[in-house]
Amino acid sequence: MLTKRIIPCLDIKNGRTVKGVNFVDLRDAGDPVELAALYASSGADELVFLDISATEERRKTLAELVFHVAEKVNIPFTVGGGISSIEDVDVLLQNGADKVSINSSAVKNPQLINDLSAKFGSQCIVVAIDAKQIDGEWIVHLVGGKVPTEIRLFDWAKEVEERGAGEILFTSMDNDGTKDGFANEALAKLSTELNIPIIASGGAGNMQHFTDTFIDGKADAALAASVFHFKEIEIADLKEELKNNGIPVRI
Q1: What is the chain written as a DSSP string?
Q2: Which of 45, 51, 88, 130 is flagged as catalytic?
Q3: What is the pTM (predicted TM-score) of this model?
C-alpha cells in the first residue's frame, strides 16, 4: 500500500485563512504564510491553498502569496482559485507552486484540463470537485459551492481522468465543516472506478475519521482545515495514530 498523505488546506479570503461550515459562515483562522510554515515543520505531507474570494486582482494576490509561502516551506503545495489559462498556471509555478487546482474553470471549459496536462504534465494538475447530494445523486457545484450544475460527480470524475488530470480533490459539501467524518461511500466508489489518486476533503473531526477514510473510503490522501488550524488535532499525533492502525504514513 502506498504511503497515505495528510494535507492541511488553507482557504484564503482577502489574504487571510478562513474556515466555514458547509461553505458558509466563514471565520478567521490566521495568517496563511505563518500557518504554512507551521504545517511544513510539523509533518504535513503537502499543503493546499484555495483562494475562495472572487476579486478581480485574485491572480496577483495568489502569486504574491505563493512566493512568500515558497520561501517558508519545503513540502509540495497546490494552489487554486481563479485559474483559467496556461498563463495563470505559468505565473503560479514561476512563483513556487508545485501543482495547481482547477474547479469551475474546468467544468466551463473541459479542454482546459487537456491543455494544462499537455503543457505542464498531469502530475501538476489537480481537479477539485465540490459536490452535494440532491435527491440521492451527487451533483457537482461551482463557484465555491454556490452554483449547482446538472453534472453528476462520477461521470465528471471519469471525464477528468480521461482528459489528463493527475489527481482529484473531492469535497463533499454535505460533510464540509461538520466534523462528522468524510463521505467515505462516495470516496470508495471514486477510488474503485478511477486510476488516479483521490484526495478526501470535507468532514474531518477526529483522528478516527482519517483512519476511516483511508480504510473505508480508500482515499489516497486526506485534507482538512479547521481541526488543524484550531489545534484540535496535531499532525504528528495523527500520523502516530494512523501508523498504529496499520496505515502507512511518512513519519
Answers
A1: -PPBEEEEEEEEETTEEEEEETTEEEEEEE-HHHHHHHHHHTT-S-EEEEE----TTHHHHHHHHHHHHHTT--S-EEEESS--SHHHHHHHHHTT-SEEEESHHHHH-THHHHHHHHHH-GGGEEEEEEEEEETTEEEEEETTTTEEEEEEHHHHHHHHHHTT-SEEEEEETTTTTT-S---HHHHHHHHHH-SS-EEEES---SHHHHHHHHHTS--SEEEESHHHHTTSS-HHHHHHHHHHTT--B--
A2: 130
A3: 0.92
